[in-house]
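W.,

You were right to be curious about this one. When I first looked at the sequence I had no strong expectations either way, so I just let the prediction run and decided to look at it fresh. Below is the sequence, 205 residues in total, followed by the output.
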Amino acid sequence: MRYLNKIIFINSAHIPYAEVKLDGNVHFIGTQGVGKSTLLRAVLFFYNVDKSKLGIRTQDKQKSYDEFYFPYPNSYLIYEICRENGKFFVVTFASNGRVAFRIVDCPYEKRFFVEEDNNVRYEWGRISEQIGTKVFRSNIIRGYEEFRDIIYGNTQNAAKELRRFNLMESSRYQNVPRKRKFFSGIFRAMFRCIAPGGTVYIYMI
């Protein structure tokens, strides 16, 4: 079984550094403004790969998704995925004014991106050195449709070396839009479960 195991914020959405585990039933409780919608939008984007269909506002309503989550050259949203034979992670970052992706075939480690003095690396070459030469890492993936082809198992369009990074294998790729809509609907429905007093309870499975 493959699933999103962890999300890491680095200089993203007003968060200097945070790791949030999503491995199982996760319960987020908090009053307005503590970052629940910020986290949920980041998760939704991973599954939708479509900034126009997230359905949840940022805390700063004047900023776009890119401006809010990637304000600096060294701003990253990182998604670690568990699979049957280990873990890999997806790095998202701003490139030429829009979100781009890289896939790295090893578990995430903080030292890849953050130096001992807590400075965050912004040059991919320095990050790549920390990851090591024996670990596969993809070229920059700039197209949203290309990234969807990879994670939703469209073997017809995904590059051969990237097919092993799918979340699900789909022999009927035309059903993928319905799967994306299903994921998005679940998360948005959970977000709307608002308890008395403004506390939001979010259950992620």
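Here's what jumped out at me. The helical segments are 36-48, 65-69, 124-131, 144-151, 176-191. And, maybe more interesting for your project: Residues 189-205 have pLDDT under 50 and may be disordered.

Coffee later to discuss?

I.
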